[in-house]
Design brief:
Number of helices: 14
CATH topology: Rossmann fold
Helix content: 40-55%
Number of domains: 1
Mean pLDDT: 90
CATH class: Alpha Beta
Structural class: alpha/beta
Largest sheet: 9 strands, mixed
Strand content: 15-25%
Radius of gyration: 20 Å
Number of strands: 17
Low-confidence stretches: 1-24, 365-374
Length: 374
């Protein structure tokens, strides 16, 4: 164990590095805390004086930079445990200290799950079971928020779609207006869908069977600062990065597939509200995304990024990928009715903020039109 005011050159493989907390309050534990969502949540919590512990194996390229930035921004406030959720002992030790657990650690790419399904299962399903068992064995377990995925609903091939010029739309008007709600039957597809879906159901059942305080967020596409997207995960940031670099984007399918996108600040607001309403929300799963107002096809997102950066990248089309939903938009009415939450950041504003952050991070800020920042 070492101490210091920052990461001090934190690297994968080191067992534990700790920055002494400013006060003795129990920390919020964020598994996968060095990733995009985790680092943004940690920054918010630390900014209001709360203590944070990150548990992350630092396996995703670039996340060390996130941790170093966080520790520099909040010296003395964050503890970092370099460990894997597959290590039940490390998980149990971290959970035992926590006042709340945000479980984000995961294998996040469908393509990787198809290439290495056993590893995908071990991380997503067994890793989540490690967290749940650590909670179950405590005399007074802290509450848990687990981030699941819209992929638990499968390919949604039964939904009749209308093909428009730049997007697909459901033929059913109710789906067009509201999106897909939690009554939709689960239909796991691809090893990733199976592993995340199994974890999703384990969390709900541990709330039911053992009385854990636990909430599941079935999330759509989240984007924002500190996201270094790739072709396989974080596609909005990936598109923006390709545009900034003037490089082509490979689109799998025809690009008309539609997703609802949610800016990271809105997701953090949802986490805050879930924590405030745990007694009423525990044991429930909620679809969380940008909703119909923030839905867009891949082609429409490329066009928007082109307007913002002035660099619309060329497109290269490839075959459809397994399990790729042609249409998924979250119906968030259940969570709104329970907490009053609704997204506040529009797609155009959020994309502008993302592109500015990425350009600053790479030292090549684009000229962002005033209309895009408004």
């Amino acid at each position: 164990m070492t101490t210091g005011g920052g990461t001090g050159g934190l690297r994968r493989g080191e067992p534990l590095r700790i920055v002494p907390p400013r006060q003795s309050a129990a920390p919020a534990l964020i598994t996968g805390g060095a990733g995009f969502v985790g680092i943004n949540l940690a920054h918010r919590l630390l900014s209001r004086g709360e203590q944070v512990m990150l548990l992350d194996n630092l396996s995703r390229p670039g996340v060390e930079r996130n941790v170093e930035w966080l520790c520099a921004a909040h010296p003395g406030g964050v503890r970092v445990e370099v460990a894997d959720v597959r290590d039940a002992g490390a998980v149990a030790r971290a959970v035992a200290e926590a006042r709340v657990v945000f479980h984000f650690a995961a294998q996040v790419a469908v393509t990787t799950s198809l290439a290495a399904p056993r590893e995908d299962f071990e991380i997503n399903a067994r890793g989540t079971l490690n967290v749940l068992e650590a909670l179950r064995l405590l005399p007074d377990p802290p509450p848990l928020i687990y981030t699941s995925t819209n992929k638990v609903y499968g390919g949604l091939d039964d939904i009749e779609l209308l093909r428009r010029a730049d997007r697909y739309e459901p033929a059913d008007s109710a789906l067009r207006w509201h999106g897909i709600d939690e009554s939709r039957p689960l239909a796991f597809h691809t090893p990733y869908g199976c592993s995340k879906g199994a974890a999703d159901q384990y969390v709900l059942d541990y709330a039911r069977s053992f009385g854990l305080k636990a909430v599941v967020f079935r999330m759509s596409c989240i984007y924002g600062p500190h996201q270094f997207g790739t072709e396989d995960q974080g596609w909005v940031a990936h598109f923006a990065l390709r545009a900034l670099d003037g490089r082509p984007i490979t689109v799998y399918g025809d690009g008309r597939q539609v997703r609802d996108v949610l800016f990271i600040d809105d997701l953090l607001d949802a986490f805050d509200l879930a924590c405030a309403h745990f007694p009423r929300l525990s044991g429930r799963a909620f679809n969380i995304g940008g909703g119909p107002a923030n839905s867009a096809s891949l082609l429409e997102v490329v066009d928007a990024i082109g307007r913002i950066t002035g660099r619309r990248p060329p497109l290269v089309f490839a075959e459809w990928r397994a399990g790729d939903q042609r249409y998924y938009v979250s119906d968030m009415r259940s969570f709104h009715e329970a907490t009053g939450w609704a997204p506040a950041v529009s797609l155009e504003e959020g994309l502008g903020r993302l592109c500015e952050w990425l350009a600053d991070a790479r030292g090549a800020r684009p000229k962002i039109a005033a209309s895009e920042r408004a």
